Automatic annotation (TrEMBL):
PANTHER family: ARAC-FAMILY TRANSCRIPTIONAL REGULATOR, MMSAB OPERON REGULATORY PROTEIN. The keyword Transcription regulation applies. The keyword DNA-binding applies. Pfam families: AraC_binding (PF02311), HTH_18 (PF12833). This is HTH-type transcriptional activator Btr. InterPro entries: AraC-bd (IPR003313), Homeodomain-like_sf (IPR009057), HTH-like (IPR037923), HTH_AraC (IPR018060), HTH_AraC-typ_CS (IPR018062), Tscrpt_reg_AraC-type_HTH (IPR020449). CDD domains: cupin_MmsR-like_N. It comes from Zhongshania aliphaticivorans. It comes from the Bacteria. The gene is btr.
Length: 290
């Protein structure tokens, strides 16, 4: 099945399909077989752009940075606006088109690989589309991938492109977690992180953190772990250890002084926590970094 539309490409537009011999090399190379691009493009103010597929053999990512459009998928109609991503797995019937009055500007990317489904699952979209806002970092990665069209088919360039693609999908997964609507009471994550940062030299307990979020300890811990993958207290400890690493790298303070600076009166206990987190004692870390 045809991978791209026949939409007439304007002077500033980009449409680039990797030749089959490059796709074969990437699918067989140990550094790229996990994830690699197949085709990519940039369609500015894409008046008249439309596409319909009964199925496709690759994953499709579309990022709208301006204007509007429509996606039909799973017998549902989704209105697409600036900041929306669309992510579709293979063999998934769909149709999409630009708005007639305010046509979208989009980046698009087809990709595949052994890890493609793992990244798709990691992003955890409950619907095919979600608004992540217009993110300069995402735009930069798309622009970087688009430069592959100037690579002269050098394999090293495509290896780098494969790793850019991993960075793109990993970052989108993070943005999705930040932007996903929360069920029940919404937690002010920035306030929580700021509070932890303010108490980096001292202590915070679960009761205090839950009170800031105005939730029970049980519901706060459950929401926090779903958002970060860590318990609130472990997250706070990790912030302290990150600060301790910075002080070990950038100052000549003793381990006892650094322990005190991140809220530990007992330097031996601090060293045990540090080693459990980093994998080496503070003095070994300092020596290793130098």
């Amino acid at each position: 099945m045809k991978i791209t539309s026949d939409w007439p490409l304007p002077p500033l537009g980009i449409r680039f399909l990797l030749p089959q011999f490059i796709q074969t090399q990437l699918a067989g190379h140990p550094l790229t077989e996990g994830l690699f691009p197949l085709a990519m493009g940039y369609y500015p103010a894409a008046f008249g752009h439309r596409m319909q597929r009964q199925q496709q053999d690759s994953y499709l990512l579309i990022y709208c940075i301006d204007g509007k459009g429509t996606l039909m998928c799973d017998d549902k109609r989704y209105r697409i606006r600036s900041g929306d991503i669309i992510l579709l797995p293979p063999k998934h019937p769909h149709a999409y088109k630009a708005d007639t009055k305010d046509p979208w500007t989009i980046y698009w990317l087809h990709f595949n690989g052994r890890l493609a489904d793992h990244f798709y699952q990691h992003i955890q979209l409950s619907t095919p589309t979600l608004n992540i806002g217009v993110q300069p970092r995402v735009v930069r990665i798309f622009d970087g991938l688009s430069e592959l069209r100037r690579s002269g088919y050098q394999l090293a360039e495509y290896i780098q492109g494969g790793h850019q693609l991993q960075a793109l999908l990993s970052y989108i997964a993070l943005l999705v977690r930040q932007e996903r609507p929360q069920s029940g009471k919404i937690i002010n994550w920035e306030r929580l992180r700021a509070t932890m940062q303010e108490h980096i030299h001292g202590q915070l307990n679960l009761d205090e953190l839950a009170a800031i979020a105005k939730l029970s300890k049980y519901h706060f811990t459950k929401k926090f772990k779903a958002h970060t993958g860590q318990s609130p207290i472990q997250y706070f400890i990790n912030m302290k250890i990150q600060r301790a690493c910075y002080l070990l790298d950038s100052t000549s303070q003793s381990v006892k002084q650094i322990a005190s600076a991140v809220g530990y009166d007992d330097a031996y206990y601090f060293s045990r926590i540090f080693k459990k987190t980093i994998g080496m004692a503070p003095n070994d870390y300092r020596h290793h970094r130098r």
